[in-house]
């Protein structure tokens, strides 16, 4: 069914049909949304194993371990960057089976930190109630919550209309995307809802190629972390899939706490709280 829908938008064979993918993250940082919205189809890898830390490439080319942001997000407070962290039950499980711990009242703590950081921001009175409703729902697993935060972020980059959190879904966002004239994205899908199984160990390239074929994509759009960790460009070439490396840098925009200085690539919360819709769109583009 997805192939039929994708072909509807990309019947001209001279146009590259671009797929990108990412693990679900908690109110993701801005580069996450740039990659999603600069693709034709975006895949959310919810059945990948949950990890607290990833290996990231540094400017020297070496890898350094840091937060995966699957259960964290950085916001800005008066003292600088502050990470909101979701407590989970420590087990080696996929993200969509990792259980959230609700024992230490973290939801109220996150809401209090967001209120402290952004109560004087331009859009606080409109945006904070949406986040409050979103976080006060109970979720069966980490992926369920983080996917909601992704969908919310996408909508807040597409529209200024009121969002009914209770009706938020992949289907509702997909209905809006084809009407959007600002960004490239036309469709999103959840990996666990596709016929493509999770990757076997050491088979990440084969898995991505299978996702591309499922989505009828002939270009894969990827980030520096995956490029350093496992991307085999020859494998994609043999499969007749071109590759494109994301090259996005966060422009300076108006933030709270100017004495701290500008902090790039924070949580989507920071951008949405501080800027009107058109300015948000310019930053992400």
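Sequence proposed for the structure above (285 residues):
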């Amino acid at each position: 069914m997805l192939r039929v829908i994708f072909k509807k938008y990309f019947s001209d064979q001279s146009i590259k049909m671009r797929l990108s993918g990412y693990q679900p993250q908690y109110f993701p940082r801005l580069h996450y949304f740039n990659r999603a919205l600069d693709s034709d189809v975006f895949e959310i890898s919810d059945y990948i194993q949950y990890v607290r830390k990833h290996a990231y490439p540094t400017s020297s080319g070496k890898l350094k371990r840091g937060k995966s942001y699957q259960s964290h997000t950085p916001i800005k407070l008066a003292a600088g960057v502050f990470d909101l962290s979701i407590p989970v039950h420590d087990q080696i499980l996929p993200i969509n089976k990792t259980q959230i711990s609700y024992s230490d009242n973290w939801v109220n703590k996150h809401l209090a930190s967001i209120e402290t950081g952004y109560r004087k921001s331009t859009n606080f009175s409109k945006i904070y109630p949406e986040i409050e409703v979103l976080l006060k729902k109970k979720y069966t697993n980490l992926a369920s919550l983080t996917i909601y935060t992704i969908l919310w972020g996408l909508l807040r980059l597409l529209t200024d209309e009121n969002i009914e959190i209770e009706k938020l879904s992949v289907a509702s966002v997909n209905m809006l995307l084809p009407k959007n004239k600002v960004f490239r994205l036309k469709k999103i899908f959840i990996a666990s809802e596709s016929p493509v199984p999770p990757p076997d160990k050491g088979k990440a390239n084969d898995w991505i190629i299978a996702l591309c074929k499922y989505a009828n994509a002939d270009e894969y759009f990827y980030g520096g972390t995956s490029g350093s960790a496992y991307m085999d460009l020859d494998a994609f070439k043999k499969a007749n899939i071109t590759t494109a490396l994301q090259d996005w840098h966060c422009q300076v925009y108006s933030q709270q706490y100017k004495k701290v200085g500008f902090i790039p690539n924070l949580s989507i919360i920071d951008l949405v709280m501080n800027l009107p819709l058109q300015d948000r769109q310019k930053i992400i583009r």
